[in-house]
Write a structure and sequence with these properties.
There is one protein chain. About 45% of the residues lie in helices and about 5% in strands. The protein folds into 2 domains: about 45 residues; about 30 residues, no CATH class. The chain is flat. The N and C termini lie far apart (about 60 Å). The protein is mostly helical.
């Protein structure tokens, strides 16, 4: 069992999938440009008559860090970032052999 979107969900292993069903799942995945797992879940939702709702997953594990910097700390960070983003032209000049 693992967590997805704040809820516990179960995993199931399916064996003995007939070739025509496998082909259908792979085709769905390719058409939707999603993983085999997501394609299979989509097919299962459709066959169960249960529409698949796309819920945005929000994570809150870093919330305690939001807004804790002082103005000076934020400015120092922005300055350090600006320095890191500059290009040293001498390093990028092509050396002639």
């Amino acid at each position: 069992m693992f967590h997805f979107g704040g809820r516990k969900v179960k995993q199931i292993t399916v064996r003995g999938i007939p070739p025509d069903i496998e082909k259908r799942i792979r085709k769905e995945a390719q058409q939707k440009k999603v993983s085999i797992n997501k394609a299979l879940l989509s097919i299962l939702h459709k066959s169960a008559g249960r529409p698949q709702t796309a819920k945005k997953i929000l994570f809150h594990d870093l919330d305690h860090l939001s807004g804790v910097w002082k103005k000076e700390e934020a400015e120092a960070f922005a300055k350090a970032l600006a320095y890191q983003r500059t290009v040293d032209e001498d390093l990028w000049k092509r050396k002639e052999s």
